[in-house]
């Protein structure tokens, strides 16, 4: 059971009401996790600005990081949301499961990124030297590294908000990784 109610448009600040309206126009709904950010007068806008900021990573690469980080942090909300978004970005169900496990046998460059995102998250930023070397050898730059670390932080915030609030998941539930044969 959720420890937090998901605020409605009428229960949030005027600024957040405008953001809710924009999300409804863009997505057709306000995801429960975004609505939960709106318990704060500033957090939703700050989060969306950070999440939508310019980055050297492509949309597909961002999903690689989002999936690996959310799996390490065991966030069913973000795993479910990013499974749906991953499919929209062209990943198959099997590829998404691999990315959640922190690797990508289907693409060596994405494999290096998935391994890095998983390693950074598991080790709280104390990245293993061989994982970092593999990332650079795959063709990524120091700028890509900083953008990846920023994205790990971005996703970890959402993972923690859901883990703490337990708001209902409003995306198709991602299957447990253990249930999949990888």
Automatic annotation (TrEMBL):
It comes from the Bacteria. GO terms for molecular function: peroxiredoxin activity. It holds the Pfam family CMD. This is Alkylhydroperoxidase. PANTHER family: CMD DOMAIN-CONTAINING PROTEIN, SI:CH211-175M2.5. Keywords: Oxidoreductase, Peroxidase. It comes from Algibacter marinivivus. Residues 43-106 form the Carboxymuconolactone decarboxylase-like domain.
